[in-house]
């Protein structure tokens, strides 16, 4: 049983999935290793992830390990329908995901993935775990644990754990260094710019490009926007991050000031209504708004609608709102993750590490889940370092090793000048 758009797209999906696999050497190694050892034989797994070519390769890895896997989308606009078709038709993975599905269908699909009665969940935004705790508590007894892919999901889960509400262990894949150092920074950096450019085809050179939030994702977007010749402005609420942005060479100012001069404003905070009505009231005519944070709440879209007397769609992924004073504000991808909606999400080479973490954490939960507390756990350090080692080897990069003398020096306190 699946619910996807069109099974005839499967061949196109296979071709793109194979293309992505060429950039995923760590995942290729895991497919080989898992197909020999079959460590997940018969384990029921439900994944709520963006249905992209890279996710398909994660699915193939888990299938090679013997898992009984189903997938649903983690965002209504990120599904690649050809990939969904390939998963169902060619890789025997049931999928519940249709690009552009309504919020109602989105949650029906989450429920369908839960009907699989998972022992392990994989989330990108914590929707499976959250729905299970709200409406499907009967499934909790089966659970060995879950994994969480993104910052926003980890924040939600830590809040659940703090309230004593989390009823099985979850591993914060996002917090692995081989995940957020690369995926959030270089992945979002490249793919958010890709989405904005594909959606608008507007030159960035010489434009004022504001980024709201200088976290892992914000740093990556700032770095790449500067590479395009934009004048990059950062807005922050955290003094340390603001200071870092300033010394990285960006202008830092309150969003109310930035809104008056910006040609582009991109949100990556994981926070709500970071762009609000008061910012829209002073925005420069023609300003382009986009979001790369997890949920579509970072830009106050109801306020934008309320301020507008007209809205047109001049291009796919661009909604042009006109205010009573004649100014226009352009919103990309309905305020949803611009890199997944208007482009293809992160490049495969970074997802190689993110999804190696996912696959190894699922294996870890299968072995250790019953022994872990019902809280949010870090990815074990040895696993994180092993992924870095495998990635370096695949990139044909060698590094030095500590000598015995250096090791002794670095682990002792007696020796000084
Ligand atoms: N687009 C993608 O593919 C993708 C990939 C990874 C993460 N994410 C999502 O992007 C978001 C950010 O993730 P991150 O890893 O960069 O998180 P992070 O915690 O490293 O950074 C978020 C930053 O936003 C700042 N912030 C919060 N509220 C703010 C406000 N009102 N104004 C200005 N700054 C504010 C915080 O101080 C922090 O520095 C999360 O929702 C995460 O789930 C998206």
How would you sum up this structure in a few lines?
The chain is α/β, with parallel strands linked by helices. Helices cover 45% and strands 16% of the residues. The strands form 2 sheets. Strands 9-8-7-10-11-14-13-12 form an 8-stranded mixed β-sheet, sandwiched between helices. The chain has a 7-stranded parallel β-sheet with strand order 3-2-1-4-5-6-15, sandwiched between helices.
Give a written overview of the molecule.
The chain has 417 residues and is of the alpha/beta class. Helix content is 45%, strand content 16%. The protein is built from 17 helices and 15 strands. It has helices spanning 10-21, 25-37, 53-64, 81-89, 103-114, 127-135, 151-162, 177-200, 216-227, 239-247, 255-261, 277-280, 301-307, 338-341, 348-368, 381-394, 404-410, and strands at 44-48, 68-72, 95-96, 120-123, 145-148, 170-172, 208-212, 231-235, 251-252, 264-267, 288-291, 308-315, 318-323, 328-332, 376-378. The strands form two sheets. The protein has an eight-stranded mixed sheet with strand order 9-8-7-10-11-14-13-12, sandwiched between helices. It has a seven-stranded parallel sheet with strand order 3-2-1-4-5-6-15, with helices on both faces. It is globular.
């Amino acid at each position: 049983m699946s619910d996807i758009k069109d099974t005839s797209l499967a061949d196109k999906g296979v071709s793109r999935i194979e293309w992505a696999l060429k950039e995923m050497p760590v995942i290729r190694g895991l497919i080989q290793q898992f197909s020999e050892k079959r460590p997940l034989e018969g384990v029921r797994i439900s994944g709520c992830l963006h249905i992209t070519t890279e996710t398909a390769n994660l699915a193939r890895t888990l299938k090679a390990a013997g898992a009984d896997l189903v997938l649903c989308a983690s965002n209504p606009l990120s599904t690649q329908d050809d990939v969904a078709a390939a998963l169902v038709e060619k890789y025997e993975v049931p999928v519940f995901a249709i690009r552009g599905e309504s919020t109602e269908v989105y949650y029906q699909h989450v429920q369908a993935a839960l009907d699989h009665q998972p022992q392990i969940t994989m989330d990108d935004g914590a929707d499976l775990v959250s729905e299970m705790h709200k409406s499907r508590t009967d499934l909790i007894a089966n659970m060995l644990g879950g994994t969480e892919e993104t910052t926003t999901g980890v924040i939600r889960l830590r809040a659940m754990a703090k309230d004593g509400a989390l009823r099985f262990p979850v591993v914060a894949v996002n917090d692995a260094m081989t995940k957020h150092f690369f995926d959030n920074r270089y992945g979002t950096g490249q793919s958010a710019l890709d989405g904005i450019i594909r959606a608008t085809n507007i030159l960035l050179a010489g434009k004022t490009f504001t980024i709201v939030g200088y976290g892992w994702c914000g740093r990556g977007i700032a770095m790449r926007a500067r590479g395009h010749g934009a004048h990059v402005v950062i807005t922050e609420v955290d003094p340390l991050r603001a200071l870092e942005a300033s010394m990285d060479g960006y202008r830092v100012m309150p969003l109310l000031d930035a809104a008056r001069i910006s040609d582009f404003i991109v949100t990556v905070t994981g926070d709500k209504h970071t762009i609000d009505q008061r910012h829209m009231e002073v925005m420069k005519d023609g300003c382009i708004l986009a979001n790369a944070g997890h949920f579509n709440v970072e830009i106050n879209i109801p306020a934008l609608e309320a301020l507008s007397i007209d809205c047109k769609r001049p291009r796919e992924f661009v909604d042009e709102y006109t205010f009573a004073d004649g100014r226009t504000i352009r919103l990309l991808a309905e305020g949803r993750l611009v890199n997944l909606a208007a482009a293809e999400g992160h490049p495969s080479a970074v997802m190689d590490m993110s999804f190696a973490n996912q696959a190894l954490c699922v294996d870890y939960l299968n072995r250790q889940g019953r022994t872990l507390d019902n809280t949010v756990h870090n990815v074990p350090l040895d696993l994180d370092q092993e992924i870095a080692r495998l990635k370096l080897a695949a990139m044909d990069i060698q590094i030095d090793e500590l000598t015995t003398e250096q090791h002794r020096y670095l682990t002792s306190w007696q020796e000084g000048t």
